[in-house]
Amino acid sequence: MFAYIYIYLASFFLSVFSILANNKFFTLTSIYFLFSIMLIFIGLRNGIGSDWGAYNDHYFFSWEEKNNTIFDVGFNALSHLFYSVGVEFNYLVFLITLMALLPILKLSRNYKYSIIVFFLYSTVYLPSLMGLMRQMIAVSLCLLAAEKLYQRKNRQYLIYVVTAIFFHAGAIVFFLAYFVQKIKINMRKIFFILITLSIFNYFITEQLGHYLIHNDIMSHQVSVYFSLLDYSLNPPYYSSNLLHTMVMFTQKFLFLYIFLYYFTKISYSHRGIFYLKIYSLSLMLNIIFYISIPVLAIRGSIYFSIVEIVLLALLCEHTKYKWLFILVILLYGGLKYFNTIFFSLYNQLVPYQSIFSIQ
Fold this sequence. Notes:
Elements: H1 2-21, H2 24-43, H3 52-59, H4 63-67, H5 73-84, H6 89-108, H7 114-129, H8 133-150, H9 154-167, H10 176-180, H11 187-214, H12 219-225, H13 242-248, H14 250-266, H15 270-289, H16 294-305, H17 308-318, H18 322-344, H19 346-349
Helix pairs in contact: 1-2, 1-7, 1-18, 2-6, 2-7, 5-9, 6-7, 6-8, 7-17, 7-18, 8-9, 8-16, 11-12, 11-15, 14-15, 14-17, 15-16, 15-17, 17-18
């Protein structure tokens, strides 16, 4: 348990000292040091993560057995290669962690407060991604792809997204980022879209699931992937989960408003507007699917919601209240970090154990 606390404190103070120093060499050194800490801590873990058992079992499958699972071809090939040469599963975990961290390291160097980008990834997203090894790689690649898209390097964007799909098929949703970048954005348009999707949430998503079950159409698939409320004897027969969805994502709505207001009204940022469009896609997917098809909402929206680490770093660059924002953002990272470890994923992450059995 204390290992997680020590890692956060080291990351927090390293970030603070890096920002206070305001020195390019010291910042770069701090990022590489934080990168090394997270690579060792996450890469050398043992038995930690929600899907550790499934990945460990999959590692010993034959090539034919691997291809008959839901795992993707890129991960199957990498796993089979390691197994064929007699390498232990833990070495594959280390490589996967390295492949997930390197794109974030490369991306962060494009920002003034690069340490904040890496710190937020390590605290807000990495703990929950530890058990989702395929998606851990895919999400990092897609975030780097977004940066290439902003730089108008469409070929590199395509290469990164396609590579991500080989490791996690869900990364295909990130092709939406290419089209959303062309849409002009403003407060009224965003909220109109969200309201429209809210209506879709009730009349299509939830009701469709119940309709399919009661008419015995793909009932098994619906029962596995849908999470629907019980039938009521009085209208509305299937009450909407919309209000609950809104409450669950209050933080994201608040971030959306702050980003939209700040980057359009206070200090215009072309890069900020670009990433804000991508970030809004995470809210849209959550509003439509979070309650009725939670797997699709959670696994799909993370490809877009992760850009908040870039938006928060940009906010620090543009605001007059820099130190206040930096402190709040670092504390926000800690709040999300400890909530993941000690509450939402406690049973999968605590106690920490490495390959050296250090707890």
